[in-house]
């Protein structure tokens, strides 16, 4: 049986089919490309029961991933992160079945490792010699580390106020790193120009190559498997570039076509910060695309994306599942981050904190009734954002007493 049942690539706007076994960027229409699979072949080749006996990494779903040969898989053991029940915090919110998918435990400490693992593996398989990308921090760190693992060069540009730890990860990985006095879009313009001048280097900016989504969609497959191949009622996702929520929705549709899940799809919730909320603004207007968000700024740095290339795909996922889009303040998300940590002992990233802050609003408004299976995606480890927790504690002399 084939290792991958990848069939072709498809323009997300026009449906045009493109070849999958050459390096591709955007479609001729300037839209993201989506990987498509021979799902009839997948259905005949493997069952959920067989998948359960495989190694606990995202590559357990290799039939619906784009890498043709296992020899080209570049892995650091990513995937199968825990799905944790949150009983104490759930009681505080009036949610009897609250869960968290904790992506802080994958390599590099964020869900970005999923996209990097699959994207770098496929790039290397297709003969790419180096990758180049703009980033708000974590994606650049992940891609730089996986590129090092694969023996590829990496060029990374990020806003100057990106988290310092992510810059250090890039430096440690041997990446060619540049800080940019601007936002991620400004970094993207510089990267695109540089990549165009470098033979064998692929611009792997968000959604400008087809395979980052494929790594991210495995979160959807894992959630279904961890629920016994049924689906939760609601999934909340912190949304910047939106690849995670696009990928989860793609996984849901694939699993439904495969017959691995049935029933209504989870309502998908795109969570943003009020300081950068283009998707929320568009959703409130009933729009199919967003407008650039002015003066974008939030402490949840990973979701500071004023205008996402795949905004229409995010909005489609929300509309088609009966979901919603909601924004919270920086004060609310930082408070939720601390509250969750003190209640459940799990230190989430500020982007994850945004989702927990959003839960309060959704419960108070009645959008959540309280008895649903609700899954929150925590997209990274809180320890990567030490600046979000103030350190104001007493200093004792050796002769002092602890009261």
Mean pLDDT: 97
Shape: globular
What is the count of β-strands? 13
Number of helices: 13
Strand content: 15-25%
- Biggest pleated sheet: 6 strands, mixed
Q: SSE string, helix = H, strand = E?
A: EEEHHEHEHEHEHEHEHEHEHHEHHE
CATH level-1 class of one domain:
Alpha Beta
Major β-sheet strand ordering: 4-5-13-10-11-12
Helical residue percent? 25-40%
Rg, alpha carbons: 20 Å
Query: What's the CATH architecture name of one domain?
Result: 3-Layer(aba) Sandwich
| CATH topology value of one domain | Rossmann fold
Cofactor: pyridoxal 5'-phosphate
Keywords: Lyase, Pyridoxal phosphate
Protein name: Threonine synthase
Pfam families: PALP
Structure description:
It comes from Amycolatopsis tolypomycina. One of its GO terms (biological process) is L-serine catabolic process. InterPro entries: Ser/Thr_Dehydratase (IPR050147), TrpB-like_PALP (IPR001926), TrpB-like_PALP_sf (IPR036052). Keywords: Lyase, Pyridoxal phosphate. The protein is an alpha/beta fold and 403 residues long. The chain has a domain at 83-109 and 212-384: Rossmann fold (3-Layer(aba) Sandwich), CATH 3.40.50.1100. Helix content is 36%, strand content 16%. It has 13 helices and 13 strands. The protein has a six-stranded mixed beta sheet with strand order 4-5-13-10-11-12, with helices on both faces. It has a four-stranded parallel beta sheet with strand order 8-7-6-9, sandwiched between helices. Strand 1 and strand 2 form a beta hairpin. Helix 4 (112-125) packs parallel to helix 5 (138-150), helix 5 (138-150) packs parallel to helix 6 (164-172) and helix 12 (330-344) crosses helix 13. The termini are far apart. The model has no long low-confidence stretch (mean pLDDT 97).
